[in-house]
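Per reviewer request, we include the raw input and output of the structure prediction for the construct analysed in the revised manuscript.
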Amino acid sequence: MRLPYWIKSETDLRKMPSGCLPGNGIHATKRLLRKHGLSSVCEEARCPNQEYCFAKPTATFMILGSVCTRNCAFCAVTSGTPVDVDATVTEQIVDAVREMCLRYVVITSVTRDDLHDGGASHFADVIRALKIGLPKVGVEVLTPDFKGDREALKIVIDAGPDLFNHNMETVRRLYQTIRPQADYGRSLEVLRAAKEINPGIRTKSGFMLGLGETSGEVEGLLGDLISVGCDALTIGQYLRPSKKNHPVVEYIIPRAFDELKDKAVQLGFTSVASGPLVRSSMNAEETYRGG
């Protein structure tokens, strides 16, 4: 399917002047990531907003390596057998955040079903290092489901992130096709459990449109998220990252995203970002501050 004009035009607008990094912000951000030996989900997942975000500058740092133990149909991240966790990444992220002059950081990871705690301890190490080294910087984590292990989740929450994010990605019916190694109910329970572990933490989730879902299924997903106390929400258009990934079933018109945002706000979400090129970590600081 050809990209509709509204996505092409919005992509063209995703350009901003450089921030505190010297020279061209986009290339400076990439050079800095390479300098510190870091991976970003922006690059690994082939996000369409790379140019926009890297020019600000900002980036979503990816820990636990760049190889995922799962193989979701929508995702461009490499799937296979991961290597051992690099503990030096923690210090490298702190140094990179300081050099990029960031006020808000998003930490995410591939899914590591091969690790006993799913990588939760490494998440906690990064959170604590940022809180100690850069106490004024806000920290958001976007985690996998840890196979539903509540103790692993508690390790992350107890480290003190400012916002906890776990994406639903799609509606219940499509999980078997789009996320065959995940479980809809388990992901909902992750968000519920985060609030039970720390009632004061803000939680966030996101999902994509255009995978074949119905409007009724989307409304059901919104209701399920509200029922587990989810505070913030991101809704975006699925864009096929490669020919190996699931095809786009439908391009959703911008007005539909606006209408969904209105519904979500009416249901009680405190912060909602909804639009064709909205992604989970895009403008994460604004989403956090806005709610």
